[in-house]
Amino acid sequence: MSVPFRFAIPLAAMLALAGCQTAAPESPDQTMLDQAARAELGAADCQSYGGLRATRRLNDAADATFAKALQAGATEADIEAARLRARQQADQYQTLYGNRGACDRLLQFPDGYTPPN
To answer: Mind listing the UniProt keywords for this protein, alphabetically (predicted)?
Structure first.
């Protein structure tokens, strides 16, 4: 079965992305850092989809989660690694789902974060 040429390039790109998947988080602390980094990135890159208030709340959530992780023993290097993983995921989301789909996946509060009233 042959694939028409117009589908070959997108198919090759999707297969290449599938091969570049980042490793699954190894611990609950890493999961927490990854969620905070995605929230921070969503606030920075997706303001037009979430609005100014959502951007502020996501930044507050990310800051609170990073502070909690630092108190639990995480390092700045751990936070930077989580930010890199978030950027890589966002790039994959962008390729697969476009701007709106990527932002839908980034504009989420970290697990366990309760926004103040």
So the answer is: Signal
Say which residues have a Cβ less than 8 Å from residue 22's Cβ, sequence separation at least 6. Answer: 85, 88, 89
Length of the chain: 117
Distance of CA 20 to the CA centre of its chain: 15
What's the whole-number mean pLDDT along residues 11-18? 54
User: From residue 87, how far is each of 5, 59, 75 by CA, in Å?
Assistant: 30, 16, 19
54-104 per-position pLDDT tens digit: 889 999 999 999 999 999 999 999 999 999 999 999 999 999 999 999 999
Residue 8 burial (10 A CB sphere; 0-12, 13-18, 19+):
exposed
Question: Which residue ranges make up each domain of the chain?
Answer: 28-107
